[in-house]
């Protein structure tokens, strides 16, 4: 069993910052990619950022220059979100690719509003 748990969401004013964490636990033999996605009701889930030892980092166009993905340790990934905008409001999900299988967390809500 592999478990993916996100934390760090909340309410923030426009222009503010939030830091999301994603921790993977369980039967982990190898990990290739960890990524963050977000979704708003009625829309498809979209890639925010991903990180992998072989591919480096990739960001969605809407967050480039404002968000940074990094590895805190072998099983934890952090998404630092700066200069937040109301359109960043969404449920943020972490995905881990472990041994070729994808595992998703339950998500953490980010709301950007004054």
How would you summarize what this structure contains?
The chain has 114 residues and is mainly β. The protein has strands spanning 2-7, 10-12, 18-26, 31-39, 46-52, 56-59, 67-73, 76-81, 90-98, 101-104, 108-112.
Folded structure, characterized:
This protein is 0% helix and 61% strand. It is built from no helices and eleven strands. Strands 2, 4, 5, 6, 9, 10 and 11 form a seven-stranded mixed sheet that branches. It is globular and about 45 Å long. It starts with a strand and ends with a strand. The mean pLDDT is 93.
Summarize this structure as a short list of keywords or feature phrases.
114 residues, 61% strand, seven-stranded mixed beta sheet, globular, 0% helix
Distance between the termini: 40 Å
Beta-strand segment tally? 11
Q: What's the main sheet like?
A: 7 strands, mixed
What is the averaged pLDDT score? 93
Low-confidence stretches: none
How large is the radius of gyration? 13 Å
Class of secondary structure makeup: mainly beta
* Envelope shape: globular
Count the helices. How many?
Answer: 0
**What is the string of SSEs from the N terminus onward?**
EEEEEEEEEEE
Q: Note the beta-strand portion.
A: over 45%
Give helix % range: under 10%
Question: What topology emerges from the helices and strands here?
Answer:
Blueprint: E1 2-7, E2 10-12, E3 18-26, E4 31-39, E5 46-52, E6 56-59, E7 67-73, E8 76-81, E9 90-98, E10 101-104, E11 108-112
Parallel strand pairs: 2-11
Antiparallel strand pairs: 1-3, 3-8, 4-5, 4-9, 5-6, 7-8, 9-10, 9-11
